[in-house]
Write a structure and sequence with these properties.
161 residues; 15 strands; 2 domains; four-stranded antiparallel β-sheet; seven-stranded antiparallel β-sheet; mainly beta; OB fold (Dihydrolipoamide Acetyltransferase, E2P)
Amino acid sequence: MSQKFNVNVNNAQSFEIDSDSVNNLDIVETNKGSFHLLKDNKPYNIDIIKRDFNTKSYSVKVNNNTYEVNIEDTLDALIKSMGFEVGASKKVDSIKAPMPGLILDIMVKPGDEVQINSPLLILEAMKMENSIVSPREGIVKSVTGIKGQTVDKGELLIEFE
């Protein structure tokens, strides 16, 4: 099964590619981080200048032109939509329900200081208990969820100061 990727180049151009298309490229690694690509009978020399695997961002030089490339797969898109981006822990100021469900337990209250990965609440969805943990260090500003309450996807549960 082919996996799909969203690619953003220089924060200006976005497109979608799939793993089958990538696997069918006529590309050869010439040195570590350097490649030769033949596409539509045109040669391209590609050098990976910089890479950050955590954020899936790369600086790529193609025929002496440098491009900033970000790659996102479907899991990255899901994590981003839930507000749990890798490397974005300082930006997260609220926790929203990632899916509809029932709040089984809330482990924090306003004023509590939490650490990264501290359990915040347990949300039951589709007969599974999902532990929602803190994406960052901080102080809980408010808790809008109530134990025993059902919530809809995207509903605000917890805010940080």
